[in-house]
Specification:
Elements lengths: L5 E6 L3 E8 L6 E5 L13 H6 L3 E5 L8 E2 L10 H14 L5 E6 L1 H12 L4 E7 L14 H6 L1 H5 L3 H9 L1 H12 L7 H8 L7 H12 L10 H7 L9 E6 L21 E6 L6 H4 L1 H14 L1
Parallel strand pairs: 3-4, 3-6, 6-7, 7-8, 8-9
Antiparallel strand pairs: 1-2, 2-4, 2-5
Length: 299
């Protein structure tokens, strides 16, 4: 019988990563990676189908979220995407996972893509939600509507934006949920249970650095310079990859994930989830789970 879901901790080189885990320890591992502003609760609907299918389900809290903590006060509170990916790779290594399935949303999708691009033999499947590969660079072309969608990236690069985030982080996050998925009527408890993770003492610093670094407004942590150089060329992903994108995504318009086939050297499929905004795993869980299980069974 699968084990019940419980909170565990494991140390990497710079983090004590908190994660929830369930299922047999010797079963194929699935790592579920949340995005911003979100946490592991975003995957609650996935636990039963994945465990029933015989998987070990692992849900880490990203740096700056929930109970995850830095081991040293001197480590830069970097939110750069390469840091998130290195956290993921170090996490899989610390758990002793020789091979795993990655399912990521938003920031988690970007981390999953990067690990798949750098460690293809360690990733059997990559499933990304709401983010297309090849959309990380500061020099990417953006349509005017997508530039409007990214207003908060540049707002957080200002003192006023930082002040707003410091003043009421939950109000800021709630506004993102409402803006990105206007048709989604989430409950107070659904938001509150996740927003508790934003009380992490490093959350604000990591959020601000992430968006400032992404557009060249902040220096990166030199620890990740080598990986940053590799990612500058947008390496092809040689892992079977499924992309799920809400048709009404108010953060990353569906057009941002179109025409990415050339960036993949293995099986690749893109599916629009009708009526879903930026959080399809929360808004349309049945449709998303069906696509995920179908992909895992097919590839």
């Amino acid at each position: 019988m699968p084990q019940s879901n419980h909170l565990s901790f494991i140390d990497t080189d710079c983090l004590r990563i908190a994660f929830e885990e369930s299922g047999p320890a010797d079963a194929p591992a699935v790592i579920l990676l949340h995005g911003w502003p979100d946490d592991v609760r975003t995957w609650d609907n996935f636990l039963k189908p994945l465990r029933t299918a015989g998987y070990r389900v692992i849900r880490p809290f990203l740096r700056g979220y929930g109970p995850t903590r830095f081991l040293s006060e001197h480590t830069p509170r970097s939110g750069q995407l390469s840091a998130l990916a290195c956290d993921l790779m170090a996490f899989a290594e610390a758990l002793g996972l020789q091979r795993c399935i990655l399912i990521g949303h938003d920031w988690g999708a970007r981390a999953a893509y990067i690990m798949a691009s750098q460690m293809p033999t360690r990733v059997s499947h990559c499933i990304a939600l709401s983010v297309g590969w090849g959309t990380n660079g500061a020099d990417q072309l953006l349509s005017l509507p997508q530039s409007r969608n990214y207003w908060y990236h540049w707002y957080l690069a200002t003192a006023r934006g930082a002040d707003d985030l410091h003043r009421d982080r939950r109000a800021f996050a709630r506004f993102m949920w409402n803006t990105w998925s206007p048709a989604w009527e989430f409950s107070e408890s659904e938001f509150g249970n996740t927003a508790a993770s934003f009380d992490n003492p490093d959350w604000i610093d990591i959020c601000l650095h992430s968006y400032r670094h992404r557009w060249g407004f902040a220096e990166g942590d030199p620890s990740y310079a080598e990986l940053e150089a590799k990612l500058a060329t947008t390496p092809r992903i040689m892992v079977p990859t499924l992309l799920l994108h809400g048709s009404d995504d108010g953060a990353n318009h569906p057009s941002t994930s179109e025409g990415r086939e050339k960036l993949f050297g293995d099986a690749y499929r893109r599916v629009l989830i009708p009526g879903a905004g930026h959080f399809p795993q929360r808004e349309k869980p049945d449709e998303v789970i069906a696509e995920v299980m179908g992909w895992l069974g097919h590839c």
